[in-house]
Design a protein that fits this description.
Elements lengths: L14 H5 L3 H15 L4 H17 L13 H27 L9 E6 L5 H13 L3 E6 L5 E6 L5 H20 L1
Antiparallel strand pairs: 1-3, 2-3
């Protein structure tokens, strides 16, 4: 009688990796919890740790791919760029709200051709565009090659495309691809 060949099994994850699938996310959630509550009390540390462990476990199926940061320095440069751009956009939007007659250009849509393909990079790009006042991610083409962005003031569409590609897409490609 021939014996059956052993079935291949999926590699087992280490117990710690199963408990903490995204350590950076868990740490960031704990830090954010403590910052939002402005407290380092034992209760807030425990509750923040529980949330930091539970949320990544509960949302593991929503993450498309494991995140592997290729160039940590590019993360810092991108973060500083986003902070500067968001600050500049906040001032521009405040100007429009406080002095509606000061509008220089009409609103409009811009099609941005995309080279980035990583789902995590696209998600970060969506957050950047939506967090920047005066702009909104409107649509992503089915093949993920074109992004439609709405702008509160649109002067030069080609300059906007060049800015998005240079300031956001290129660093995201360095980080994720």
């Amino acid at each position: 009688m021939a014996s059956a060949a052993p079935r291949p099994t999926a590699p087992r994850q280490a117990p710690l990796k199963r408990l903490v699938p995204a350590p950076l996310l868990s740490f960031a959630l704990l830090g954010l919890w403590l910052l939002l509550n402005r407290s380092l009390s034992a209760g807030h540390i425990v509750l923040g740790a529980v949330l930091g462990l539970a949320i990544p476990l509960l949302t593991a199926g929503l993450r498309p791919l494991p995140v592997r940061v290729r160039k940590p320095g590019a993360v810092l440069r991108l973060a500083l760029t986003v902070v500067a751009d968001t600050t500049r956009s906040n001032i521009a939007v405040a100007r429009l709200l406080l002095a509606p007659g000061s509008r220089r250009h009409p609103p409009g849509f811009v099609h941005v051709p995309l080279d980035v393909r990583d789902p995590n990079a696209l998600a970060v790009l969506a957050m950047i565009v939506c967090l920047t006042p005066g702009s909104a991610w409107a649509e992503l083409s089915v093949d993920r090659s074109m992004l439609l962005v709405h702008l509160l003031e649109l002067d030069d569409a080609a300059a906007v495309v060049a800015d998005i590609k240079h300031r956001y897409e290129r660093p995201l490609m360095e980080i994720f691809e």
